[in-house]
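Quick start: read one record
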Amino acid sequence: MRTSKVVLSLGLLGLALGFSPAVSFDGTPSDEPPKAPPAHSHPGPSPVPAAPLVRARPNLDAPRPPASIPRRASYPMPAAEALRSGTQALREGKRDQAVTELQYAADQGMPGAIWKLGQMYAEGEGVDKDKLRAFEYFKNLTQTHANDRPGTPQARFVASAFVALGHFYLDGIPETAVKPEPGVAHDLFYYAASYFQDPEAQYELGRLFLDGIGSAKDTKQAVRWFGLAANKNHHGAQALLGSMLFKGQGVPRQVAKGLAWLTVAKEGAGPEDAWIAEAYRSAFAQASQDEQAMAYRFLEDLVRQRR
């Protein structure tokens, strides 16, 4: 097969693919929620098959925001409508209305509102950036909804809150009681990755194992977690998995599979992910025409499995 045909075929197949969790790597979601954490503590990681046990549950009770979060006892609309209206107001630049309505929905315990407020303060979206206040919103969400069943509408918000807290503990929050604690970050990513099967958490956990941050370096575990996230169409995980397979890093070298995953990652990545495109170009340039053709056949097999 000529190289130009392989390039075109790989690109088209990469665009068409959606991946089943059964391809190449296994991961079985748990049907049972983990035991509730002790009062006033953060839930810790729930073990998954073939993964090492991790440290005890982290306690996240210390930091509080410098000013109390306003509470609103009543509001002239249902909480779900306040969430919808507040989100729309934020898009329209109506800052005060957005914060008021989202806070009301959050006070009524709506996970989507709590998560949205955390995101707003973390990124300075419609409000002044306040990482400590964002930390508090995310912590509240993880403490009150850690045992929600995976697959429920609110589960994605809870999993995302675990990931956000993990990032705070990787970097710390300057001039606050939230200091860098990579081990705590590892536990938070692990919980969301194993219990909620969240692809972003699985990707972040794979990176920690790859670099030996928060735990011992373990490239086999990195490959495992990247594989789980890649099968959920996480482009960063697809690219790192593809690179590791292509190089034989922590796994027997599989050039064709590695190039196939890099192709899928490249086709799905955005312009901000230039590193993915570069990893693909480098691998493709190193692969022989036979290896390129094998990658093409591997992608064809995946397409047939999806039909």
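The radius of gyration is 21 Å.
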